[in-house]
Amino acid sequence: MPTDAVLTQDTSPVAEPHPAEAVLIEERSLVLDGFRFTCRVVDRGAPVTEPILILGGSMQDRNSYVRHEKWLSTVGRVITVDLPGYGGADFLPGEFGVDFLAAATRHLLDELGVPRVNMVGACYGGAIGLRFAQHHPERVARLMLVGMTTHVTAEYTASMERWAAMIERDDTAGIARELAEGFVSPLGAGRVRKHAAMARLVHQQITGQNAEQRRNSAEHNSRMLRHDWYRPEPVPEVPSLVVTGEHDTLTTPAMGREVARSLPRARFLTIDETDHLAPMERIADFADLVVRFCTDASLDELPYCSSPETLGTALTAR
Question: Are the C-beta atoms of 246 and 239 separated by less than 8 Å?
Fold first, then answer.
């Protein structure tokens, strides 16, 4: 997912934070098994919910959700992170899988002295966030997964193998074109806000990668091919929300519903007029959704998304 974009303002029920409020922003370096990584913590004080930890996609870093912070930080501390292999963190060889990244997430919270979080995982970060919840259920207050699937399709697997070959021959333009076509829904699939801007952004981000970033991208693909993306392990019975863009063609609404059905207390909804890049296409609205979920506010009849569907195993059984 892209790290940044020139975006127009969204309309959202979330109130703008008062400009006079003091905001503490801290960055901290951490090390796990010799791999250095960095977290960003935004604290406005007087939290009303557990800290919100955001794990972004494979092309995101700790600054990807800076534009969301002014809303999210009104209800709790906001933590973003360059896990090993991401952003400015150390390179992480593909032999280290999702289990290691979940362990790095636990180490991050241990170092910050944070006992429980509202876990928000988007795309690749969704796989890490879910594994973290499975391995450390006592550390999760709520679980929100965005653009998540229980399986990597054969088509996407073939694409990753093709991209590995393209990286070997330095075909950056070809990879950028394919990723822009994959992450953004095809024209005609439905109205998507900032469709053209997002396609340009993904293309520019890939073509602008330096050698180390291209190496990280190749290793992310290798990691997905070599390790379990999803495991049907027990998940804590905490409030869970699975979110997909209305016109997401990479992790479709059907895939999102499948994820929700695997969680004990999950609801599912789609964000209107978005695709796989929903958090960046409707920034204020996405932030509003996160705030509402993390404070147990109603998700009914919101102007920017579908009505939530109750799909979790424990909820449907009841």
Answer: no
Each residue of 115-158: pLDDT tens digit? 999 999 999 999 999 999 999 999 999 999 999 999 998 988 88
Q: Which domains does the chain have, with CATH numbers?
A: 24-151+228-317 (3.40.50.1820)
Only one residue has tokens 């795309």, namely 123
Q: Give the tens place of pLDDT for each residue, 161-210.
A: 888 888 788 888 888 888 888 888 887 788 998 888 888 888 888 888 88
Task: Residue 280: name the closest of 50, 59, 51 by CA.
Answer: 59
- Say if residues 305 and 289 touch (Cβ distance below 8 Å): yes
Tell me if 139 sits within 8 A of 161, measured CB to CB.
Answer: no
| Residue 4, both tokens | 């940044």
Q: What is the pTM of this model?
A: 0.90
Joined together, the tokens standing for residue 114 give 């944070």
Per-residue HEC secondary structure of the chain comes to: CCCCCCCCCCCCCCCCCCCCCCCEEEEEEEEECCEEEEEEEEECCCCCCCCEEEECCCCCCCCCCHHHHHHHCCCCCEEEEECCCCCCCCCCCCCCCHHHHHHHHHHHHHHHCCCCEEEEEECHHHHHHHHHHHHCHHHEEEEEEECCCCCCCHHHHHHHHHHHHHHHCCCHHHHHHHHHHHHCCCCCCCCCCCHHHHHHHHHHHHHCCCHHHHHHHHHHHHHHHHCCCCCCCCCCCCCEEEEEECCCCCCCHHHHHHHHHCCCCEEEEEECCCCCCHHHHCHHHHHHHHHHHHCCCCCCCCCCECCCEECCHHHHHC
**118-119-124 Cα angle (round to 5):** 165
Q: What letter represents residue 244's amino acid?
A: T
29: left (phi over 0), alpha (psi -120 to 50) or beta: beta
